[in-house]
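pinned: reference chain
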Amino acid sequence: MGKLVDGQWITDEIAAAAPDGRWTRAETLYRNWLTADGSPGPDGQPGFRAEPDRYHLYVAWNCPWAHRTLLARAFKRLEALLPISICAPRRTDQGWVFADDPAFADKLYGSHSLHEVYTRGDPSASGRVTVPVLWDLDTERIVSNESADIVRMLDTAFVDCAPQAPRLYPADLAGDIDRWNALIHPKLNNGVYRAGFATSQAAYDEAVTDVFETLDTIEAQLARTAYLTGDRVTEADLRLFPTLARFDVAYFGAFKCNIRRLIDYPNLWRFARAIYALPGVADTVKLDLYKRGYFSPSPKRNPHGIVPGGPAVDFAA
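pinned: its structure tokens
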């Protein structure tokens, strides 16, 4: 899979499975903060000042964590202020890479791989190279590669640049949003990966139970409200949607989360289509690329790299 060690890309590193078969996500490397005036963020470190055309977002269409940031960018109407570069749909032994196709090129530096961007900002970087990446052009540094933080920053830092955009984390709903995030992230967003990458039956059973118990809980909530916290779209909804968008075309088959499909949940299916219909959201959904990514060659999960023809999913139905 590969990672950086003191600024050098190591391709022969093999992640060791935990003795109990549980899969654990790697820690985020960079968690600086972007604020409206450059004041310190929640971590107390000096902040980066939000300015038009100063920042760049590196993403991949098939990554759900990057998808969160693309949704926030669209919802906050920041497309013109925050350009993006998109990694190719399939990783190689170099990790996330770019391609000759202009649609999958590094528009800033013409890099061949994302790890080159990491070491441009931090020559001694060590750890996993992931998307999304929020990049500062002024200092040529990574502001953050933590998707949850980037979503929150896009909601709060650019208020002067896009004053008409609705808030994703309004103060009166903060408690409800936090509670949903605390449930959905470990048990659903990350739960599908815990199921897909489990190396023991017990670890898989635990993870897949978490996934479907969480979907059942959300289904019950959406029988009462249009969105997770009521009648307004919030950060919690945009953190839920990327998992739903990939569920039937990827997680159901590739990650063995196959007890029920998304379309078997009437309220969740209605919710997913409602989010999809919001301005700018449809442009962030790439079902064919999800299948190509999740069914890419893998010695354990899909040794021949065969991408299935279905299922047919229509969020615009």
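why pinned: The mean pLDDT is 93. The chain is about 35% helix and 10% strand.
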